[in-house]
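>> received
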Amino acid sequence: MVNRLRRLTGAHRVGHAGTLDPLATGVLPVLFESATRLAEFALKLPKTYVADIHLGFVTATDDAEGEPEAVADPAAISAADVDAALAFFAGRILQQPPAFSAVKVGGRRAYTLARSGEPARLAPREVEVYSAQLLDFQPGPHAVARIEVRCGSGTYLRSIARDLGDRLAVGGYLGKLVRKAYGPLSIDEAVPLDELATPRAVLDRLLPAEVILPEMERVRLNVEQEAQVRQGRAVRVVPDPGPGLVRAHDADGRLVALGHADPLRRTFVPEKVLS
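>> returned
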């Protein structure tokens, strides 16, 4: 996606905020030029996924790319059982990443080790799941639970599928996965790739860079202050900004820079300046 849009637009810098697994679809924020410097902040935004979890089977990849192996008949599992099990996945939880993941082990990607026949057992890591709810359930010997998960960065839906199957004692793996939202960006407003056939089409659909930023204090710069900030110089702003990250906008409301307050000099100090 990044390479295609770079070739199409001729932009010098194009990046994305958040890799999707090969079988996944949905919202992918693409950043252009100086907005690529904001990716670290975008990654902290919550994401919402809709996932189909197949019960009664497991795969080596924890998703449909692997060959399913039967574990136990899920025919006795009910929607109420799945709903009760999902309750254990809400909040801050410890999650073991899939063996086929981009996590580095001794400088090598876990999926490289797994493909070479020496999969590593990855250490559990803390992730945050804001909500996990059952949307639909198809019972039977090939039971499928469709769930919606709103979570923080670093959460693996493949791990949730695997661990949900373990909790139900029948095994489970991830089937279809759609990222429905990325922070305030919804799939309902997302642009299908085939609608981005010309540079003009991309330009017409660009959003302000600040839509991928979390909430933070704002300061307004006049023309003189903006010129100084664009040169990387600290400026005096009124009122004094508080602690933490601060967003500086120009007189027309466009994002100019991210920075912090210097309480001793009572100034805004730019750290990331956008062109």
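>> The mean pLDDT is 90.
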